[in-house]
Amino acid sequence: MKIDIIAKDGTARAGKIKTSHGEFDTPAFMPVGTQATVKTLSNNELDDCGVQILLSNAYHLYLRPGEDIIKNAGGLHKFMNWEKPILTDSGGFQVFSLAVLRKVTDEGVEFRSHIDGSKHFLTPEKMLEFQTSLGSDIMMVLDECVHYPCEYEMAKRAAVRTLEWARRSKDRAGGDFEFKPNREQNVFGIVQGASYRDLREDCARALVKMDFDGYALGGLAVGEPREITDEMTRFTVELLPEDKPKYLMGVGEPQDLFDAVSAGIDMFDCVVPTRNGRNGTAFTSNGRFSVRTAANAKELSPIEEGCGCYACRNHTRSYIRHLFNTDEILGLKLVSLHNVYFYQKLMREIREAIKEKRFTEYKNERAEEWNSKLQTR
Amino acid sequence: MKIDIIAKDGTARAGKIKTSHGEFDTPAFMPVGTQATVKTLSNNELDDCGVQILLSNAYHLYLRPGEDIIKNAGGLHKFMNWEKPILTDSGGFQVFSLAVLRKVTDEGVEFRSHIDGSKHFLTPEKMLEFQTSLGSDIMMVLDECVHYPCEYEMAKRAAVRTLEWARRSKDRAGGDFEFKPNREQNVFGIVQGASYRDLREDCARALVKMDFDGYALGGLAVGEPREITDEMTRFTVELLPEDKPKYLMGVGEPQDLFDAVSAGIDMFDCVVPTRNGRNGTAFTSNGRFSVRTAANAKELSPIEEGCGCYACRNHTRSYIRHLFNTDEILGLKLVSLHNVYFYQKLMREIREAIKEKRFTEYKNERAEEWNSKLQTR
Fold it and tell me: Which whole number is the average pLDDT over A163-173?
């Protein structure tokens, strides 16, 4: 896998990445389909929003429905009937944030399921094998995540372990598989190292030597100040090869996307558009607002004037607010759908701005607009 | 309003009913959109299912969002952006089943909201006025419902009061209105009388004298044996004018529809397809079954082979079962959508069978098939 760079504007870049399930444009935002479904939305709705690639989560799928059921369907694409690219997260982050009684050793991680308390032992090899049987177009290596703030020694131990796990994952990826629904699968390494430059640098250089199909930045946007996220991102991106995709995991708010794109990031994922959608918080070019407020009780305008999404073409804020007030599922869907559409539109605009060499201008304009009107409604 | 009878087969009839929001074919099944939304489904999905008319509920809409907000939108059609016909139930049944501390007098009914305990006093005139401002194509008069079993004297008192309320509703419908978003609104009377022939007969004859746009049978399918529902339906339908729509409220299961159509009923509504959908119970021509059972864990067939709905064209039982297991909203939608589609398809088949003078044959065939395979999966 490589990225075809179509245009550059400073360090920001617009390109295309090919997979055996079609290509996607970068910078790309992947909606999160944790449990093989982007919450509240059906595939035709994701298509209508312009989604070209989505993320699912190996940790969750490993627990439910489990490997057997997904193998039986012929892999994850067939299981959920999504024909475009899928990236699966290894579950590193979930094991460290959701699972209970975990015990990490160099071998792997032992934990109890957050669902039923059942005991599991995951190794880097096992998660690579599982993602192979999912048929993910992009598989992530198992990594060890640390919290913020994290002491240097602990961050170092996790980074070293992540590197060793990356090596073992890469080795396993080169081996034989009984069940492999997708012949062209790619593996991304994950740069850890918390907010320590030297750890990030060592980790990045070692991963590059292992020659992954792409590189992710992990352990960022986990609570540290935005300046640190930005500094670590810029610093790390420069250590990674130009012709490979660069993915900033778990990011983020529109402002974060602007920053990271300008640093040279190509791929993003985040629950922000969907989780906020289910809370009734809508994203617009004028900032975000809650459709649930009394101010929207009689508001006959859509979530965003001129927006082409199904929700905005068909429904008023007044109606959507009523749906939230009465706990109607359609409300959750309409705002989620709008937000997913909004994020895809944002990425299209970002790509256009890069191609037209006016990304910085666009970014500043939008950021200013966004900040000035933030939560004013 | 009248019904254009296109074909008759015994007492069963197929026709068309015109409204100012377009016409609908009968026998018709109206999905229930209690709170101005058919739970989990968007309007484009209802269109895809072939829905031609839906039911909403004046009692619920009166409490939330309230008259003011719906008037502000220009009526219910505009509020929910549904351009086809809408029938609104008056809320009689809901006042008697949901509201607390109700007190019924000849004047009206005093109750406390089931949502926030607020006190309300509804009269037949007020409910007619409210439905007028909703712009419903068909408005139902406020009636007094009784439970099953119900003693004769109590049933009689309720029937007499329902008649008097019907008269007052009819009078109010002929008056002036400040806000009337739909100029061609129709009012249906409701025949009550529990399971007492003489009460049903008196009520029906008196309503017919008042000359309503259509007639509903209320207080049936409230727990009485199916034989009684069927007997009361057949007996009452014969007392009503041939050229007017006849509506059996709150019915029902497919078997009930077959019986009532053969008695001459033209319209139905019921929460059965949507409520069951949200429980994971799917209707098929082979009976109904739960997609949640372990038997479906690896089942790669759709809910129903050959079904043209979005769920069946796109997803396996295995996937839908996973969605239910993981509490994903998409699961609720897919089965609801299938069931609404199934009911619309059933009504199309019923209409075709009547037109081809083979309704009894079709009904017996389907009933036998249905019963023999009922819940065998």
Answer: 97
What is the C-alpha to C-alpha distance for residues A47 and A84, in angstroms, rounded to an integer? 10
Q: pTM here?
A: 0.97
B84 has a pLDDT exceeding 80: yes
- B42/A334 Cβ within 8 A: yes
CB < 8 Å & 24+ apart, contacts of B96-99: B96/B144, B96/B145, B96/B146, B97/B145, B98/B59, B99/B59
- Closest alpha carbon within chain B to A313: B81
Pairing of strands A3-9, A267-269: unpaired
Active site residues of B: 89, 269
**Confidence check: pLDDT of A374 > 60:** no
Q: Which residues of A have a catalytic role annotated?
A: 89, 269
Express each pLDDT in A247-288 by its tens digit. 999 999 999 999 999 999 999 999 999 999 999 999 999 899
d(CA A114, CA A112): 6
CATH class of A3-270: alpha beta
Q: Where are the domains of chain B?
A: 3-270, 281-373
User: Which residues make beta-bridge pairs with A86?
Assistant: A54
**Is B42 in Cβ contact with A333 (below 8 Å)?**
yes
Which chain A residues are closer than 8 Å to B319 by Cβ?
36, 73, 79-81
Q: Which residue has the tokens 């090596």?
A: A167
Q: Which residues of chain B lie closer than 8 angstroms to A71, CB-CB? A: none
Amino acid identity for residue A6 in this structure? I
DSSP string, B56-114: EEHHHHHHTT-HHHHHHHTSHHHHHT--S-EEEE-SHHHHHHT-EEEEE-SS-EEEE-T
Q: Which helix (H) or strand (E) covers residue A120, if one does?
A: strand A119-122
Q: How many CA atoms lie within 13 A of A116 on its CB side?
A: 8
CA B201 to chain centre: 23
Q: Are strands A138-140 and A186-191 parallel, antiparallel or unpaired?
A: parallel
Would you call A297 an interface residue with chain B, using a CB distance cutoff of 8 Å?
yes
Q: How confident is the model at residue B92 (pLDDT cuts 50, 70, 90)?
A: confident
The complex scores an ipTM of 0.97
pLDDT of residue A288: 93
- Give the number of A-B residue pairs with CB atoms closer than 8 Å: 111
Interface check A210 vs B, CB under 8 A:
no
